[in-house]
Every structure is written in structure tokens, then in C-alpha cells.
Amino acid sequence: MDQLLLILIGTIAGIVTGITGASSVMVVVPLLSILLNFSIHQAIGTSLVVDVVAPLFISLTYSKRGHIKLKECLAVLLGTVLMAPIGSYFSDMVPERGLGSSFGGFMIVLAIIIFRTGAKQKIDGRNSSSLPCYLRHPMAKSTICFVLAGASGFMTGFMGAGGGTNLLLILILIYGFSLHDALGTSILMMALTASAGVAGHLYYGNVNFRDGIIVAVVATVVGTISAKKMSNLNEKALSYFMGGIYALLGIVMVLLNMFYN
């Protein structure tokens, strides 16, 4: 039964990452916690294994089409990778109930953002940065991106969540990447960031590699297929669907932690 649940979790994780570029942790953590009774610390550590393997292979789909641009945004990569282990250190210091409620609350907030802005956002693929002119100097841009990516990396290590979505926004809004370039690059960065996060959680014994690999293999296959078909999806419908899923899982996690003994 557990094996079937792991396959189900991997399928959902692959769809989320392959289609939206978002971290699969957003669904893996609550599902491992709710369906398989993982502690929140172990769920986060194990889910990061999925965020190493699946995004790494999914990014190959984008790489073959020339949509990986790491050289142009090394400041983003450096910031997120350096801060992920630090986030995992602080994660282990937070009580089980507090961390579970924080993760659930984060998902609810993200769901609200998706509902309010996700369906309205239209990206036309033009490479134009949203920064004011005086902040477009290479040094200023790199500094801003390093700080923002560092915060994203810390969040990845701390809660396992937010890495892919935050990096995607940085690449689109600040670097002016097209959607495909931003998706491909952020997915590869997510794998590298998760590697640093796994190292931190592994030190505290919060990683179940066996279950993580099972979920990761399934997520890789499903995610690769989803990545090839993402251009055919209706963005508005996708926003409502993902927002609803995040909200539901977030509410369930908060309620479980409220009545946790």
C-alpha cells in the first residue's frame, strides 16, 4: 500500500514540476506527512531528494531546445545554493508542530497569490526586465538577485518549498527571460539548490532515501512528459487548479498540527 501511495505522490509531483516549474516539495511534503505519517522534518528532507533527481532530468528537455541560461544568472545560482544548507540548519531547530503549521500557512498564502494574480498574469515572451533603469546596471542587478535568490535558497532549506517558483519570478521579472528560458533555467537551479538542502538535512538524519528515490523516479517520468505538453495547457485553468490544491493541502496541514498531540 505504501508503495502505491509513493507512486501516486511521485505522479502528482512530476505534473507540478513539469508543467509549472514549481518545486515538487509543495505537494510531496504535505502528502508524505498526511498519507504516510512522515514527521515534517523527515518529509522536507526526503522531498528534497525528489527535487534533486526529477528537476535534473526534466531540465534536459529544456536544454535540448536551448532554454538553459545559467551563465547569464550566476549570481542567482550562487545565492540560492549557499543559503540552502543554512535554512536546513534552522529548520531542524523548529519544533515539529511549529514547522508543520508554517509550511501549511505558506501553502495557503501561495494559493491566495495564485488565485489573485496567477490567472491574470500574461507573459508575452519578450526579454524585458521589470527593474527601474537605475537598477539595471550589471553590478546592481547581480546584487539584488543574489539577495533574493539567497532568501529563496534559505526557504528551500528551511521548508523545502518556494525554490522553483521564486527563482522563476526572479528570472522573468529581473533578468527578463522568456517563459521557456526561465522555466528551463529555474528547474535546473532547483535541482542544484535542493542538493545543498539535502546535504544539510542528511546531517540531521532527516532523509529517507529509499522512499525519496521511488517518488523521484516516478516524478521524473511523469514530469518529463508533462514538460513536453505544458504549452498546450490553459493558464487560467491551471492557476485555479494549482491554487485549489495548495489551499486544500495547506488547510489540512494546519488543522492536523492544531490538533496534534
Overall description:
With 261 residues, this protein is mainly α. The protein has one domain (2-258). Helix content is 76%, strand content 0%. It contains 10 helices and no strands. The protein has helices spanning 2-20, 25-36, 40-63, 74-91, 96-118, 138-159, 163-173, 179-203, 209-229, 235-258. The chain is globular, with a radius of gyration of 17 Å. It starts with a helix and ends with a helix. The model is unreliable at 121-128 (pLDDT under 50).
Secondary structure layout:
Elements: H1 2-20, H2 25-36, H3 40-63, H4 74-91, H5 96-118, H6 138-159, H7 163-173, H8 179-203, H9 209-229, H10 235-258
Helix pairs in contact: 1-2, 1-3, 1-9, 2-3, 2-10, 3-8, 3-9, 4-6, 4-8, 5-10, 6-7, 6-8, 7-8
The main sheet comes to: none
Through-space gap between termini: 26 Å
Secondary-structure element pattern, one letter each:
HHHHHHHHHH
**Total number of strands:** 0
